[in-house]
Prior knowledge:
Helix 2 crosses helix 3 and helix 3 (60-74) packs antiparallel against helix 4 (85-94). The protein has a domain at 33-97. The chain contains four helices and no strands. It has 97 residues and is an all-alpha fold. It starts with a helix and ends with a helix.
Amino acid sequence: MLWANVGIDIPPSASVSGLWELARPEHLPAKFFHTYLLLCSWQIWKHRNEVIFRGAEPSLLRLLLACKEEARLWRCRLPRSDQGISEAWCHSFCSNM
């Protein structure tokens, strides 16, 4: 659900190793797109663990908010000249809440 919500089309037969071959949506910057995919994958994994091991209810909204917060934290890991990219990431998570 997260992938469709942020505009990334994943075929049903796709595998995790195939993430790197996905087409980038136009609304996401090309630079650091693979980092964006890692951020989303990491948050999906953490959300899954909350649901399975802590009994949390699955929530797309909670997942999107976690992705947005993580994007803000990861901003400082980008080169200073590219830190605006994280704002585009945050917008991709917020635009469909």
